[in-house]
Amino acid sequence: MQNFAKPTDKVQIERPSREQAEEAVRTLIRWAGDDPGREGLIGTPDRVVRSYEEFFAGYHDDPEQILARTFEETDGYDEMIVLRDIRLESHCEHHMVPIIGQAHVAYLPGHRVVGISKLARIVEVYAKRLQIQEKLTAQIANTIQTVLQPRGVAVVIEAAHQCMTTRGVRKPGVTMVTSRMLGAFRDDPRTRQEFLTMIGSPNSRGID
To answer: Is 161 a catalytic residue?
Structure first.
């Protein structure tokens, strides 16, 4: 029997004050070689902190709670449910630069289904945290499996990482593809193939 890892609980940390966060931005501006007191930069610390509140809003949401409300009146529907091309914006936990791409999510319902907006919301919550793509892919799939208990879950993410396109090796146009297949999607090649066909050419996604 396959084991599904339960998503890691949020770590409780002492959160700095807003004033401390803004001062940290001023320190970085000075370190970069500019004057945080000049006209064009006076408001930058406040703007950066407000943007961080958007970029990392996922730390304040409970992914399992988002999936808690489900529906059982499906008239026996038991075929694949797929939500593809979900816009994804995250930040690399190693360099804190953007990861931009899309996610494709599918599950085979058991006795319950969930509103499709909730699937997109799960992607959003985990993406709005410091991430690596491999972990992000697993978190989305594992949470859906844990809460909904479907017959299978599949997640594919395709994304460009600015940590390697705008710095370091500087290779623009590179896309990273990751997948997490659970239950029937892992065990049944036909089910997996159907999913990959529905989201596009399997060969183009580099997944067997």
So the answer is: yes
